[in-house]
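2024-03-11 09:14:02 INFO worker-7 job=invfold-0412 stage=load source=structure_tokens
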């Protein structure tokens, strides 16, 4: 993989990139239908849940996207894999079960997703970081609430002003796990460009002041990495030690054909809890 590609350079500068029009309107419409169908399957299997939090109305399911028969081909779509490879400047992607879908509006608040969340403190800040998250939003956030806000450059600095990503349906957005970001952003009807960075204020804005899409919010999230000590440490210190991530990974069941397909896609799938896998 070239070390001079413009996508990697932009990502290195900003800590995120937006790839417009990765998927067509017809594909996005089909994805929305498939997410709802997958949710019904997960509900029947007892895998669905909601957060017990007053500011979250989102519905989730245990088990990663690779374990979801109606969604796994989205996870390993070449457009997603190629963007990840371009950003990470590698032909060897690592996937370790960190992906999910979400229906409805979830929590807000700026945060980092890496292990060492205080700027310039810890091993995450000592060498080139190799974990990225991608988001595919199945509705318009260029004009409406529910999208992503980021603080550009905060994968390398302590803080800074925030901006809306303003993605259209079918755009792909990718960001460093070290970047300060906030999901489910509120856009105001009369000041749609104003980013409200105070979570308490944002959560208290009444619905009649928000610019809300008629379509229910649906989003897909996925994490990839290039080989490094960072991903090994993240698996050991985060994925294996949190009750929610352990439950999620143990519900991520892959059959032999899925793992063989993953190899053909050029993705090294790390099965964190092999004892939970079905015999096949």
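2024-03-11 09:14:09 INFO worker-7 stage=emit residues=280
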């Amino acid at each position: 993989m070239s070390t001079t590609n413009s996508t990697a350079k932009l990502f290195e500068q900003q800590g995120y990139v937006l790839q417009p029009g990765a998927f067509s309107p017809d594909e996005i419409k089909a994805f929305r239908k498939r997410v709802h169908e997958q949710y019904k399957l997960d509900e029947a299997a007892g895998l669905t849940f909601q957060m017990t939090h007053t500011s979250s109305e989102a519905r989730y399911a245990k088990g990663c996207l690779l374990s979801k028969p109606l969604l796994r081909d989205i996870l390993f779509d070449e457009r997603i894999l190629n963007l990840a490879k371009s950003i990470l400047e590698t032909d060897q992607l690592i996937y370790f079960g960190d992906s999910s879908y979400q229906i409805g509006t979830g929590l807000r608040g700026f945060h980092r997703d890496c292990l060492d969340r205080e700027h310039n403190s810890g091993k995450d800040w000592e060498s080139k970081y190799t974990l990225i998250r991608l988001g595919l939003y199945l509705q318009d956030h260029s004009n409406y609430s529910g999208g992503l806000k980021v603080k550009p450059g905060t994968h390398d600095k302590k803080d800074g002003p925030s901006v809306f990503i303003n993605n259209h349906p079918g755009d792909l957005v990718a960001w460093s796990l070290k970047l300060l970001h906030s999901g489910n952003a509120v856009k105001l009807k009369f000041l749609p460009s104003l980013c409200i960075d105070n979570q308490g204020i944002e959560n208290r804005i009444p619905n009649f002041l928000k610019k809300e899409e008629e379509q229910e919010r649906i989003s897909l999230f996925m994490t990839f990495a290039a080989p490094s000590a960072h991903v090994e440490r993240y698996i050991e210190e985060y994925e294996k030690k949190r009750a929610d991530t352990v439950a999620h990974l143990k519900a991520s069941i892959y059959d032999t054909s899925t793992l063989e397909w993953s190899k053909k896609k050029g993705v090294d799938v790390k099965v964190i809890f092999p004892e939970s896998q079905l015999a096949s």
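2024-03-11 09:14:09 INFO worker-7 stage=report msg="The chain has eight helices and twelve strands."
2024-03-11 09:14:10 INFO worker-7 job finished
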